[in-house]
Write a structure and sequence with these properties.
disordered N terminus, 7-stranded mixed beta sheet, globular, 7-stranded antiparallel beta sheet, Jelly Rolls, mainly beta
Amino acid sequence: MLSTLASGGLWNPLRLPGLLAWFNANPAFVAVTGADVDEWRSRASDASVLTGGVATNLWMSDGWGSGVPAIDFGSGAGGAMSGAAVGLVAPGNGTDLPFSLFVSIRQTALVDNTTIVCWQSGGSSLSSLQMLNSGSGLLRYQRSDSGATSVNVDGTLGMGFVKRRIGLIFSGTSAQIYQNRLLEASGACDVGALACDTFKIGSGPGIDSFDGIIADVVVLNRAASVAEYLAYEEWSRRALGV
C-alpha cells in the first residue's frame, strides 16, 4: 500500500483528499526581496497566502540536501509568516472539526520552547504544534479555549539538529502525533469549539519563534489515515531530502 502511494515521482500532497493548504518551499510559490521572503503561496486550489518576516537565507542546503528548497526561520521577533485563515478550515472553527497537519523541518538551534505551526484568534494561540526542548524534550499539540483552559498531547521530541517529518492527526476529540514514521503520542484533546482567524508558521504567542528551516506544510480538512501520513513521510524523504 505504501509503495503504491509514495514510491516513484508521481505521488505528492496534491493527491490527498481534503487538501486545504500546501505550503511547499518551491521557488514558483515564494516571492522574495533580497534574502527576505515576502510571500508564501499555497499550492492547493485555495491559493491562500502567508506574509511576514522570514529572515536570512531563502534556500538552505547545508546539511539538508542538494539545494533542496527550504525557508530559513530565524529566532526572535519577526521569525514567522502568517495570514488570515482564508481557505483554511481552522481546527474547531465553529465546531471541533477534524484536521491533519504534516510538516517537514530541521532545527538549527535548540531553544527552550518553539512553535512550528499555530492557529490563533485575536493574538492568542488556540491550536498549536510545539517543540519543548527543556528537560528531555517534548513534541506537543496543544488546544486552548478562550478561558485559557488547555489540553496537551505530548510525545518524545528527541534532541539534536535532526530532520523531522511530523504528522499531527486530530479526530475532533483526540490527537495522534507521529515523527519520522513513529507514533509518538496519542490522547484526548477536546476543549470545545475553537474559532480561529489567523494561521501562522514559525511562531506563536508567548513562545519563542522556530529557529530552523521549514520545507513543507500540509493541512487537510479531515483526519488522515496512518497510511497517508506514511506516504507523506516517504515522499518528503525522497522528494525533499528531509
